[in-house]
Amino acid sequence: MKHHxxxxxxxxxxxxxxVKDVQPTIFTIESSVTSTASPAAVYAALTNPSGWxxxxxxxSGDAKNLSMEAxxxxxxxxxxxxxxxxxxxxxxxxxxxxxxxxxxxxGPLQDMAVDGLLTFALxxxxxxxxxxxxxxxxxxxxxxxxxxxxxxxxxxxQQLIRLRKFAxxxxxxxAGG
Length: 177
What we know:
This protein has helices spanning about 40-45, 145-170; strands at about 15-25, 25-35, 65-70, 75-80, 85-95, 100-105, 115-125, 130-140. By secondary structure, it is α+β, with helices and mostly antiparallel strands. It has a domain at about 1-50 and about 95-170: START domain (Alpha-D-Glucose-1,6-Bisphosphate, Chain A, domain 4, 2-Layer Sandwich).
């Protein structure tokens, strides 16, 4: 499974990033970047994960297998070789140009008894958009949250940079870029 290396990937270019809270059964991270695109354009990019999600953090190894039904109850899903599929998360809030909330344990967190809430908040900033990503995870972690939270922060920070690049240019960033 390609994404298990996700805890080792470094990130750069985050306007602000922080592990906000770490306790034995919960952690919260928050990162933000500013896009040159409008909130509507950022939201359109955000709801097209095949354009920006790093393929190294998919089960199939190909981001083109990702899809999102951007409405409450919608699936952020991935098709797998051989006709399989998996759900990364479920959309619990979809407000075009403003907010998207996804409920699910991502990557290796799926193998733990953990719940996660990933929120993307979009705010106009100048002629662009401030994108704030917040991820809250809680549950019965199989490793210490002190060790886990910084790695999740790095990976989601990288994904946020990729989202900004995709929203700004309309071009899918290369894997790892």
